[in-house]
Design a protein that fits this description.
With 369 residues, the chain is of the alpha/beta class. The chain has 15 helices and 15 strands. The structure holds iron/sulfur cluster.
Length: 369
Amino acid sequence: MPIAGIYGPDDFADRPQGQTISSSRAVPPARTAQPLPMPSLEWTPEVEQATAPLYERVRHVIPPVEWPLMAPTIRAINELKRARNAVVLAHNYQAPEIFHCVADIGGDSLQLAIEATKVKADIIVQCGVHFMAETSKLLNSDKTVLIPDARAGCSLAASITGADVRLLREKFPGVPVVAYVNTSAEVKAEVDICCTSSNAVQVVESLNAPSVIFLPDRYLASYVASKTDVKIIAWKGACEVHERFTGEELRAFRDADPSVQIIAHPECPPDVLAEADFTGSTAHMINWVRERRPRRLVMITECSMADNVRAELPDVEMLRPCNLCPHMKRITLANILQSLLTLGEEVTIDPVLAERARRSVERMINLRN
Ligand code: SF4
């Protein structure tokens, strides 16, 4: 069914102004952290030999001429990880040289945070955006979580605050609230349960309520509403990357080659999803490609994910209407290296707020088990 209502900042005249959108801070390195000296970043025969197995992983997506510019930094990062007892988590939207060459764990934001709980590292370097680093901190409170560029935000997470959730609760008393994981810890602390794009319908139905407030992504809300009888009240947030795709763009691909397969992320607008052969989360899309091995594929999500899949499955030809996430692209090999050298920027969350936010995430995780 269509969504039952959609609300945004303009619908609340008494909405507080100038509030923060994030509960956590990235802070300079602690006084006790010892910065390490910058290692040599020269391209030498030794570096070439040591990084050759890594180049094998990305040779279908990174031209040989670019490798000597990246390999010395990749080698330095991998050595520093051992020296610092650190793990690097990389979201599927990170560039292939990060995802395939320095990450210890790759995946969607929740997979990353959960997998990080299983490793014995002291430090997590989050290659992704700020809300992902917060989620990692929530689930790994005993570890130091670093983000190489604290400015790496997200249009979805920035669309709503904890105060907005409280206003929605006042407007719809007793209606449970579900937050997509693409929200700040401050917002997670105000809701009943979190969800991912993989389990959103399951989470909504688990509440056994006739109506649910689902935030902040209006398009994911509309996708969920199309799959359930629960009345969905939505928020006006959107992912600035996925909302730029259009159904017309997809029809042009299909007209040019009717055999092409199109898969799309549910953060896309409904006219895009109507044209897709399959709709699913980043993890579901990757599994779909691994299982089906289509000859030609249009992957409607952030560009780098298509590169990362192509590095693994070079027989799949990717036709890419390419939308890059500017926030994800703030993370580079250079600032990952810097982060490991200086132990900056550390992500910290107020402990009381963290406890409430963690509960919302853990309720969802317990539902999955
Ligand atoms: S791709 Fe969209 S949802 Fe993901 S971080 Fe970028 S703006 Fe946020």
